[in-house]
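In this supplementary section we document a worked example of the pipeline. Step one takes a protein sequence of length 388 as its only input; no multiple sequence alignment statistics are reported here. Step two produces a three-dimensional model, which step three serialises into structure tokens for compact storage. The input and output of this example are shown verbatim.
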Amino acid sequence: MRLEYTDRQQRFRQEVRDWLEQHVPKQPLRSFDTEEGFADHRAWEGKLAGGRWSAVTWPKEVGGRGCDLIEWLIFEEEYWRAGAPLRVNQNGIFLLAPTLMEYGTEEQKQRFLPRMATGEDIWAQGWSEPGAGSDMAAIRCKAVRDGDHYVISGQKTWSTRAVWADWLFGLFRTDPESVRHHGLTFILLPLNLPGITIRPVQQLNGQTGFAEIFFDEVRVPVHNRLADEGAGWQVAMATAGFERGLMLRSPGRFQQTAKSLVELYLRHQAHADADPSVRDAVMQSWMGAEAYALATYRTASRMAKGAQIGAEASTNKIFWSELDLLMHETAMRILGARAELMPHAPDAGDIGNWLDGFLFAQAGPIYAGTNEIQRNIIAERMLGLPRS
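The serialised model returned by step three reads:
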């Protein structure tokens, strides 16, 4: 496969590159898993929105540029090349927004999308529960209809960005007699409502990227429901498709990591070559990142012709999560014992953020649906194999 860009696409790339060179912070922002860093990243989302770069694929009337998927891929390549900040509102912009555009009312789109684009509203996910991690069909957190409100009781956990987020989207069981994926409803709710308790969940690095959320008879207006009551599973599967497919993990992210890995290897080649498997892993990482990019361009081209992302989104999710692990594990092998130092340690030298990336990569095979579940989906829905 050979990629060739049109003159318009090349001009778009240059426009993106010029804007980022002028606006990307010279010093990295503090982690958005800290209160101060979260505020810094919220402000960055506002700056992106000011240039209409926050959500380039969205319609212009809600803050986007109306770009197609190829232009989005170009934007992402330039974004990661420039070393721009991570997106604190990725749950909203890349997951909820496409779902809203497909299932939301016009009032909901106008109400939520512009504030999402500017970072005024940061969104958290409300999928997992203590007894329903990768198996969302086992959700028990209930929403009982009471007139023009739902009364929500129960618990969510591993809710990304929920410590300082403004809103949550998630699945709730509105039919108490239902089982599995039936009787679930997709609801949007602000996290400052009476009856909500948020408890931070500490990560391996001591920061709080997740939270558990307790609902004690929380009243949420029915007009915050997305799509019909009981249709939550269908809506959530659309959101999961965006998460596993194109939007959450663009190729630019992994291409930049692969480039950094090659540079790290070349700086330490003298001792890294003592183990020939390290060189092989570096080459495999670079080839994997390029293969993922080409496959994603192919998928984007198919979608431009009317195709839909189906069960093959599960193959994407497995590939990028295991590629991320390979790249960061290889970096750890190259750095040796120094890899365990934090970037600010006196003897850290050039280790950069490899340790943070390595710790985060451990979660890749778990979030967005565990890779074991994804392999079951591939077996049943793509290969037609019987369920065990």
